[in-house]
Amino acid sequence: MSRTILAILLLVLGLGLAGPGKIGPALAAGSDGDVTSAAQSDRITEPDSWRAIRQGEAGYIGGQPAARGVLIQSEGEIWRNVRNGKLAVWAGWLLAGVTLAIAAFYVIRGKIMMEGGPSGQTILRFNKMERVGHWLTAGSFLVLALTGLNLLFGRWIIEPWLGKSLFSWISWAGKWLHNIAGFVFIAGLVMIFFLWARDNLWDRYDWGWIKGGGGLLKKGVHPPAAKFNFGQKTQFWMVILVGALVSSTGLNLLFPFTMGDIHAMQVMHLIHTALAVVMVLFILGHIYIGTIGMEGASTAVTTGYVDREWAREHHAAWVEDVEKREPKAAE
C-alpha cells in the first residue's frame, strides 16, 4: 500500500510539472528520453505504463533534460532496499561489534600506562600547524560521522524517542552541517597529506613493530618506531585514500549530475555510505588509543607536547633523532 501511495504522489508531481498538454508524453516516454505523441500515449493504458517501468523503462517529465527529468525508475527501489536493508544492517552489526571489541580490549588489557612513570620532562611532538591540520580533519570528521549516522540510522533509533517533528528539524540542521563540514574535511585532508605523507612511508622499524604487536598486547614490549609507527601509518593512509573516495562521491551527491546520471548517483551514494562506515570503524580505535586507552597520548594533539618517557616507550627512534638535533647544554 505504501509503495502505491508513493507512486501515485510521484505520478501526480510529474503530471503537475509536465504542464497542460504534456501529460501524455510524460507518461509515455521511454528509457531513451524520447517522447511519443499525445495520440500514441492515449492508447497506452496504465497497466502497460507500470509494466514498462518495472521492466526498467523510466518515465520522464516533459520539458526537462533526460538526466534530470526522471519521474520514476525501478532502480530507485533497488537502491532503497539495499540502502535500508543489507547496507544498514551490516553497518549496524559492524559498528556494534567493533565497539564491543574495544570495550573487551580495555577490560582485558587495561589502560596502557607509562611503565617508568611520567618523567616530568616534555618533548614537542606536533607543532601548531600540525595540530591545526589534525583538528580540521578530526573535528569535521566527527561532525560528518554523527550527522551521517543519523541519516543512516536516525529514523529507526532517534525518531521514536524525539518524535517526528523534533527529529525532522535535527536532521534538517544535520544535513547542512554535513554539507559544510565536508569542505572543511577536504581542506584538512589536503593539509595533513602535505604535512605527514613523508613520515608515513614504510621504514626499517615497521616490521619489528608488527612482530611485536605494537606493544599493545603485552606489557613491557616496546618496539622502536619513528615519528609514526606502523599502526599510525595504516590509519593515516586509510584516512587519505578512503577519505578522498568519500569526498569525491560526496561532492557528486552535493552537486547532482556533475559526475554521472541518476543511476551513477545511486551507486555513488551506496559507495559513499559504505566507505564512511569503514572510516568510522577505524577511527573508533584511533579515538580509544588517543584518549582513555593510553596514558599520555592525548596531549600530543592538544598542547603539542608529550612526556619524554611516553615518547621513549612508543617512539624511541624518533626521540633519539630529535635529541641529536637538540642544542647541547653547556658543561
TrEMBL record:
Keywords: Cell membrane, Electron transport, Heme, Iron, Membrane, Metal-binding, Transmembrane, Transmembrane helix, Transport. The chain crosses the membrane at residues 87-108, 135-156, 176-197, 236-255, 267-289. GO terms for biological process: anaerobic respiration; formate oxidation; respiratory electron transport chain. It is found in: Cell membrane. Its cofactor is heme. GO terms for molecular function: electron transfer activity; formate dehydrogenase (NAD+) activity; formate dehydrogenase (quinone) activity; metal ion binding. InterPro entries: Cyt_b561_bac/Ni-Hgenase, Di-haem_cyt_TM, FDH_cytochrome_b556_subunit, Formate_DH_gsu. It holds the Pfam family Ni_hydr_CYTB. Signal peptide: none annotated. It is a multi-pass membrane protein. Its main location: membrane. Residues 125-295 form the Cytochrome b561 bacterial/Ni-hydrogenase domain. It comes from the Bacteria. GO terms for cellular component: formate dehydrogenase complex; plasma membrane. NCBIfam families: formate-DH-gamm. Belongs to the formate dehydrogenase gamma subunit family. This is Cytochrome b subunit of formate dehydrogenase. It comes from Paramagnetospirillum caucaseum.
